[in-house]
Give the backbone structure.
Amino acid sequence: MQFFVGGNWKCNGTKESISKLVSDLNSVKLESDVDVVVAPPFIYIDQVKNSLTDRIEISAQNSWIGKGGAFTGEISVEQLKDIGCKWVILGHSERRHVIGEDDQFIGKKAAYTLSQGLGVIACIGELLKEREEGKTFDVCFQQMKAFAGKLPWLYAVPSWDNVVIAYEPVWAIGTGKVATPQQAQEVHVAVRDWLKKNVSAEVASKTRIIYGGSVNGGNCAELAKEEDIDGFLVGGASLKGPEFATIVNAVT
Ligand code: 13P
């Protein structure tokens, strides 16, 4: 399975700092057998698209739930396609827990995004309290159900070919407290098994399950050794070109 590494820049950057990051990314060496994607804030996507090497694909960090129109402040999937995005991150914990998006909203967005031909980086993950209460798998499976259209009010994803699942335990995001390789591997195996039982053995074996949460240049190599960790979704460390390159190249 081809390794997949995404850089989620979140709500960071200015024209100037992004220009520097792009020039760093243009000069680092990235192994050829890794899919590499970066997700700038919406307003800088065009700048990045016009200056970044084609080797790296562009993702949005969110999208509107359906076709554009009278939806003040939203960005449609069609507009993202128009400016050259190939991916959308959906269900990120900051959108679930800070902004309040629920499973229904996220599942519908994923179905719509895929129906328009863009890929989806589908995020799942438990809160610290949920882990401590032994609910990690339940929470992740419930979030998977929403993406897979297994809840009665949801739209099923039309195809899994363009889906990457990102397991991002909320307690590990931006905290410096990375999951151990064993903790991540355990959840990745469980999610793959869920896919096998609820979607198909083929989808389970082909879908990349990547890990996110305090991944950096120092811990990526150990994590990458785990059999079911098929890449990373990187926040803070993706804002530094050389460190992001180290993470991209971790598997080799
Ligand atoms: P950090 O790498 O900063 O912990 O963020 C992870 C993340 O949320 C990526 O989407």
